[in-house]
Amino acid sequence: MIHIPEMKLIDMAMEKIESEEEREHIKKHLAICPHCREKLAKWQIVMETETNLQPSAELKENIWKQASATMKPKERKKKAKTTVAFASAFIAASLLVFGLFHTKPHVHPTVEVAQNDRIEEENLRFYPETKQVAVIPVSDFNHIRGNLWMNDVTEEMLLEVDGFIPLQEKDYQLWIIYENNDIQGELLSVQDGVTRVLFKGPEINELKLIKASVEPKGGSSKLTGPNTFIVPLENNHDKENRKE
Amino acid sequence: MDGNLEDIRLLEEIQQGSQQSFELFYEKYIRFILHIAYQIIGNKEEAEDVCQEVFLELLQKSFQYQPEKGSVKAWLAVKTKSRSLDRLRKKKPLLMNKLEALVPEKESPLDLIFLNEMERHVLIDALNHLPEKQREAIYRAYFQGETHQQITKHMKKPLGSVKSFIRYGLRNLRKQKSLVKWMEAERGWKE
């Protein structure tokens, strides 16, 4: 079962989903999915609770100072163009699908991703149900080595890959590909040639492939560069552990 | 979704360096982000640090936003939850403070919200110094959502004992928290 993305549940909790058809689709899913029901209930509590907290006077200035310091003018322009292109493409595609063809709203799965320092100490490798899958390097990236540990019970996967060469005008990007061919892209954060990525959530049971490629600086909305490695997952899930 | 298109436009303008758009976006969402972070962390100063992280992250990674998954506001909420839980994982005294909210008469539905989404081992570690039965009773009651009756059944103990495990467990938790605070003060605040 593919769960409703948390963002949609939050919009539902805020009563911000305008499409009647989409609301009905989510309601039908909620009727049979305790996992999403529980998540929605939590967000409803958060939204309904009121606090009179006011941010400190200096917070806005601190954030702006840091943000503007990390964004060079050229990068700002380039990133903005990319964002405009992505956002416009998404909006155009959404309008086309929902407006013209009136197809059933498509709910995308999402898996939570944390990288390197953001990963809390994990013991995934030591759990008895954990499986290990070797990373397969591709073409010009034969020096890349790594493993993926996956546990369908704790709904976690850990990817560790070594051998990345620093790139000047490019970034490494991870592609998380679901069984229904949905694709989630994440920029890979590489430290000293190594990257560690922790994936969490029931959606890991819906993944069929993970791969990485070289993409333009800041990431790409679709795969353009050469692949660096792949990790096939489709036959490595414990089907009996899948949640209803 | 007009409001969402407006948010996307603001994000684009911020990336082009518009301080005015940043201020509009900030005023629109800072209280929302602060509210969520505070509900999860329970400490205003730390919640403001989370606000800072979330704003910086979304300004630097707005290309990751996917409108078909939900609104910009919902995206902010997910990011805030994630960063808040990260903070609780990294700063044990904060997590201990949250666990203190387990005192039954003080508990509100929000006190423990999302805590059960943290890795089991982080929570167990935070409860590590409690005697085994107290730890189990507390974990079952507050993170597995079991009723006292269900715990009685699982632990094969009478209701009175289960209530005692929880009561003494909470008392020990407070002692443990003082100890952790003292240790952290001795070696400086741990990131």
Automatic annotation (TrEMBL), chain A:
Sequence segments annotated as region (Disordered): 216-244
Keywords, ordered alphabetically: Membrane, Transmembrane, Transmembrane helix
Compositionally biased residues, Basic and acidic residues: 235-244
Record flagged with keyword Transmembrane helix: yes
Domain of life: Bacteria
TM ranges: 82-101
Annotated protein name in UniProt: Anti-sigma factor
Natural source organism: Aliibacillus thermotolerans
From TrEMBL, chain B:
Record's keyword terms, sorted: DNA-binding, Sigma factor, Transcription, Transcription regulation
InterPro entries, alphabetized: RNA_pol_sigma-70-like, RNA_pol_sigma-70_dom, RNA_pol_sigma70_r2, RNA_pol_sigma70_r4, RNA_pol_sigma_r2, RNA_pol_sigma_r3/r4-like, WH-like_DNA-bd_sf
Residue ranges constituting the RNA polymerase sigma-70 region domain according to the UniProt record: 25-92, 126-175
Transcription keyword on record: yes
Keyword Transcription attributed: yes
Cited Pfam families: Sigma70_r2, Sigma70_r4
NCBIfam families listed in its UniProt record: sigma70-ECF (TIGR02937)
Stated family: Belongs to the sigma-70 factor family. ECF subfamily.
Protein's name according to its UniProt entry: RNA polymerase sigma factor
